[in-house]
Amino acid sequence: MFVSPENSTRINRRRPIRNFIVLPGIQTRFIVHFVQVLLLATFLTIVAIVMTYYLKSNSGDFYFMSKDLTKGLEQKSLLTTILPTLLTVELICLLVALYIGLFASRKIAVPLYRIQMWAKEIVKGNLEYNLLFREKTECRELENSCNMLAKTLKADLDQIKEKIQVLETGAQTSLPPEKILAETQAVQEILQKYLK
After folding, report:
1. pLDDT in tens, 77-96
2. Alpha-carbon span 37 to 24, nearest angstrom
3. Burial of 193 (0-12, 13-18, 19+ CB in 10 A)
């Protein structure tokens, strides 16, 4: 596969940690939604546990055997025993969700960013710029389609340039009208693919 010099230098200059946030808008929204879902789940879990506890127990206390055998039984509230542990676990889950959200958002944002850069190069007229993904399994069809589009555009534009050159030289050397008409129709046929 042809790799343009711009692509090769772009690949060699990767800085994964420094360039972790590629498309801030998309990645931030993805992470925020991911964390919101986790916070909602956390809140609902805590509410469900507290409601269940208060519905099932009349006094809210239970007897707890201390580790010191000389003390005997102590009366403690179940919520003061369970709730700190539950909140700690939920905080750890929140941090794990944030971590997963960052990596998942990057998996989505990097291909979008590469497609955006490819489209900018195509708009600039660099039709030899190839779209490259490292994730060959997920994005191979998209990569091939985009690169085929660029190759087709380049081939069609080259044909149009060639026909225009024939027409320009024909105007100077007085080409027969049939040849001029044939070249003009060939250009129109090429353009018809894009002007439907």
Report:
1. 666 767 777 778 888 888 88
2. 20
3. exposed
Q: Which domain holds residue 154?
A: 140-196
Residues 6+ apart with CB under 8 A from 97: 34, 35, 38
Tokens representing 148?
């085929």
Q: What is the mean pLDDT of the chain?
A: 77
Return contacts of 43-47, CB within 8 angstroms, 24+ apart. Answer: 45/86, 45/90, 46/83, 46/86, 46/87, 46/90
Number of domains in the chain: 2
Give the tokens for residue 135.
Answer: 């994730």
3-state SS, residue 77: strand
- State whether the Cα torsion 45-103-21-126 is positive or negative: negative
14 shares its domain with 106: yes
Q: DSSP character for 64?
A: E
- What is the reported pLDDT for 72? 56
Answer yes or no: do 118 and 22 share one domain.
yes
Report the alpha-carbon distance of residue 159 to residue 108 in Å, rounded: 37
User: Residue range 143-156: average pLDDT?
Assistant: 91
Determine whether 91 is exposed, middle or buried from the number of CB atoms within 10 Å of its CB (0-12, 13-18, 19+).
exposed
Q: Are residues 83 and 174 in the same domain?
A: no
